[in-house]
Amino acid sequence: MTSQPPSVIALGQPTVGEPELRAIAEVFRSGWIAGNGPTGMRFAEEFARVAGTAHALPVTNCTAALHLAVAALGAGPGDEVVVADYTFPATGHAVVFTGATPVFADVRPDTATVDPAAVEAAVTERTVGIIAVDALGQCADYTELQAVADARGLWLVEDAACSAGATYQGRPAGSFGDAACFSFHGRKGITAGEGGALTTDRDDVAAQARKTHAFGIESALARSGSADLPIPEFDEIGWNYKLSDVAAAIMLAQLERLPGLVAARQAVADAYGELLGDLELVDLPVTVPDRTHSWQSYVVTLDPSVSRGAVARELRSRGVQCNIGTYASHLQPVYGATTPCPVSADLFRRHLAIPMHANLTEAEVERVATTLRDAVMTSR
Ligand SMILES: *Cc1c(COP(=O)(O)O)cnc(C)c1O
User: Fold this and answer.
1) Is 127 helix (H, G, I), strand (E, B) or coil?
2) Distance from CA of residue 139 to its chain's centroid?
3) 191, 195, 162, 186: which is closest to 87 by C-alpha?
4) Which residues pair with 242 in a beta bridge?
5) Which one, of 185, 173, 167, 211, lies nearest residue 57 by Cα?
6) Per-block mean pLDDT, blocks of 10 residues, the chain (380 long)
7) What confidence score (pLDDT) does residue 278 get?
8) What is the DSSP secondary structure assignment for residue 106, as one 8-state letter?
9) Residue ranges around ligand 1 (CB below 6 Å)
10) What is the CA radius of gyration of the chain?
């Protein structure tokens, strides 16, 4: 008898199926599949409820949401925006889109979220705003960050790309600062393949983002309510960042699943905690007591004596996918950053993401834990 090669355990996986297929069929029958239609409006209302904000604007992706937010808040050439260093570099890119300069601030070693003291130290007379990141699915320190923003007269944006379903001091992710930006990319907790949303309590930010996400004019749906022949006027340049109503339909189905998906991921995190808690040379992720995690990623920190490359090779050869945590932005040559962020640089070298999604079985979680244990033992 020959042994079968082990099946591959995916690092991440969307949870999609019949409800999403039914939603797609329904939106097809409705006749409106472009963006800014009735299904998109319904999704916007539902999503604002989930984020606990007055407004939600569905957009093509989180990078677009960040661009709209930073632009609506007025950043431009000559301005500096303090950005959490440890993030997918879309956060820094969005600042560059507006002509402003991202200034990266270092992060907490335990949560990888931006260190409010580092933010404060990075502020200059050119600083106009702060972008914090809910790193790997855990909210940043919004009480402290809002205090820094208020004291210095700065705006604050929450990059909530990874944190749909997470909470901070009892409030949902997406409800902090002047605006928040979500991602519905296939690797995030809820997904339409690609997609995003901007949430805000500020009427002015919502109105400006709504206008500039659709070329700089009022939406086709708003115009279609008028009796005569309305001719919109272009008085400002905007982008085309509208989420299609097909994607919005998928997102409505995903929103119904959100509490269950977060609970499933929490159960996986709890199981990893039990199976790996005693493993030497590996630190498990920390959840601060005043917040709940969405577990977009489960990222462990390897001791410096462990070769991450060797651990990754061993995991992959045994059918367990893995990856880095995320990026140290200041080390990406495109930004030409000169100020070091040593904690972020260290996490960038030592973090290892192991499989985390809502479809993992108990047996798979056990296999990941056993394989990681073996890999760490043999990789020094
Ligand atoms: C994924 C991600 C983004 C980009 O999201 P898109 O929807 O792919 O544009 C931005 N910021 C963070 C923290 C992310 O993880």
Assistant:
1) strand
2) 10
3) 162
4) 59
5) 211
6) 76 98 98 97 98 98 98 98 98 98 98 98 98 98 98 98 98 98 98 98 98 87 69 91 98 98 98 97 98 98 97 98 98 96 98 98 98 92
7) 96
8) -
9) 61-63, 87-88, 90-91, 133, 159, 161-162, 183, 185, 196
10) 21
Whose Cα sits closest to atom 5 in ligand 1? 62
- CA 202–ligand 1 middle distance (angstroms): 22
- The first and second tokens of residue 101, run together, are 């300069």
Candidate list 188, 291, 293, 357, residue with the active-site label: 188
> Which phi and psi (to 5°) does residue 320 adopt?
-115, 115
Give the pLDDT confidence score for residue 232 in this predicted structure: 84
Centroid of ligand 1 to alpha carbon of 184 (angstroms): 8
In the prediction, which pLDDT does 288 show? Answer: 98
Ligand 1 atom closest to Cα of 183? 7
Q: Which of 63, 86, 111, 344 to mutate to test the pocket of ligand 1 (most atoms within 8 A of CB)?
A: 63
Angle at which helices 90-97 and 62-72 pack, to 10 degrees?
40
Q: Find the length of the chain.
A: 380
Specify whether domain 18-255 bears CATH 3.40.640.10.
Answer: yes
CATH number, domain 259-377, options 3.40.50.1700, 3.10.50.30, 3.20.20.80, 3.90.1150.10: 3.90.1150.10
pTM, whole model, 2 decimals?
A: 0.97
Residue 92 tokens, joined: 């820094």
Atom from ligand 1 closest to the CA of residue 187: 1
Closest CA to 341 of 128, 109, 125, 159: 109
pLDDT score recorded for residue 3: 63
What is the domain partition of the chain in residue ranges?
A: 18-255, 259-377
Q: What is the DSSP letter of 282?
A: E
Task: At 107, give phi and psi (nearest 5°).
Answer: -120, 170
Is 188 marked active-site? yes
